[in-house]
TrEMBL record:
One matching Pfam family: DUF6533
Protein name per Swiss-Prot or TrEMBL: DUF6533 domain-containing protein
Entry-linked InterPro entries: DUF6533 (IPR045340)
Domain DUF6533: 22-66
Species per Swiss-Prot/TrEMBL record: Mycena indigotica
């Protein structure tokens, strides 16, 4: 490696196994992309170019995949002990938390838009969500600034320990997800949408997403804070989870009209009122 990088045996059994685990996370995301590609073509591609949900889906599907591929390439080069430069490696390692935050922001945008529509495009809810995201972003940046100067980097970290900045991301994400879930459940308890397919979908998806992200982000925080040698392998799977959850949320919403077009059904309230959401800064029907 370049000057300043300690000589380390990166071919131990543990590191080889963790490298394979991270690669499995990448393979899982590729598989998920392939098995949902038909739905992507059916529901996402025909959308007009001014439909923000189209770009949200494409971002959530292919940005984490691009990060995965880049990390696997860098990991393989490091594993082969090819000199990539200490500063470049350390910098790329440090900004992984920003990559995860960007991907997580895509999921939160989708979830916030759904809740925003559920509250009839309330300006208070919209501004509250904007402030929540800004605070979350500030916490992530502060975490990066605080931890970067003392960041100890060794070449094996690409397949072992995650930066301590991931703890800041995990905490801010847990708070945001809790707020989104609480608002969704509060609307459900009000009974305004009782018996509709939309509220059942939002509560079901919201509950599953909260549980999934609670477990995955809390695990990331613990691994990061305690410098466990599983952090980067867990990060690989975290990216896969974020991409899968975000895209499934969008696809579930696109399938809703076709499941709710029976006029005799008690859940046939899937109208423009139910599916109204944010389109290019104005209120539009979430027709899919």
């Amino acid at each position: 490696m370049a000057q300043g990088v300690p000589s380390i045996n990166i071919h131990t059994t543990l590191i080889v196994d963790l490298r394979r685990t991270a690669l499995a996370g990448t393979a899982a995301l590729i598989w998920e992309t392939l098995i949902t590609f038909g739905d992507e073509v059916r529901y996402i591609w025909p959308k007009p170019n001014n439909a923000w949900i189209k770009y949200a889906y494409l971002f959530l599907r292919y940005f984490p995949l691009a990060v995965h591929i880049c990390n696997r390439i860098v990991s393989e080069l490091v594993f082969q002990e090819i000199d990539l430069g200490y500063s470049a490696l350390r910098g790329w390692y440090a900004v992984q938390v920003l990559m995860a935050h960007l991907a997580m922001s895509g999921v939160e945008l989708v979830m916030m838009a759904r809740v925003y529509a559920l509250y009839n495009n309330s300006r208070l809810i919209g501004r509250g969500f904007a402030c929540l995201w800004l605070i979350e972003t500030a916490v992530v940046i502060i975490g990066l600034v605080v931890t970067l100067p003392g960041l100890h980097f060794e070449q094996e970290f690409f397949v072992t320990k995650a930066p301590h900045s991931f703890a800041y991301l995990a905490i801010s994400t847990l708070v945001s997800q809790a707020v989104i879930f609480a608002l969704t459940f509060a609307k459900y308890l009000q009974g305004e949408w009782e018996g509709t397919s939309l509220i059942h979908l939002l509560v079901r998806d919201g509950t599953l997403v909260y549980i999934i992200f609670f477990v995955s982000t809390l695990t990331a925080a613990i691994y990061s804070l305690h410098s466990f040698a599983f952090g980067m392998a867990e990060y690989s799977w975290l990216l896969t989870i974020i991409s899968t959850v975000g895209c499934r949320l969008i696809l579930n919403m696109q399938r809703l009209p076709s499941r709710s077009n029976d006029p005799s059904s008690s859940s046939h309230r899937t109208s423009s009122m139910e599916l109204t959401t944010l389109y290019m800064g104005r209120s539009s029907v979430y027709n899919v």
